[in-house]
Amino acid sequence: MENKGNIFHRGVVKFVDDHRIVVGIVSQSACVSCSVNGSCSMSDVKEKEVEIESWKGTYTRGEFVEVIASESQGFRALFVAYILPLIILLITLIVLLQTTGNESLAAAASLGVLVPYYGILYLLKEKIKQKLNFSIRKLN
User: Fold this and answer.
1) C-alpha–C-alpha distance, residues 74 and 40, integer Å
2) What is the pTM of this model?
């Protein structure tokens, strides 16, 4: 698969069956590659799991692989998870500040409006998962 327009993450196969492969990916913050990274804590490193439902070849548990997604999928996920909720929060905050003048109410309501937003995302996770297609390849 060509490198242009794709996002690559290295990981380890955690689970394989006939229908899916689960790959564990270690996500590190940018400071991990910094020259003073010894002062950073382990909270800067997180493991995430990615499910791949369509692949070619055979994979075994413990094998090192590379998970590939298109940049457009990455931007879509970024928008849905971070940018859209920020926009909703800011609009709610501004509207309530202008209409009520009560800062406490506006702050609480703007944070509270995110609860149903993320609840809806949780309910739609299977539909969202269908739109996020990852591919996998072995590391040489």
Assistant:
1) 26
2) 0.65
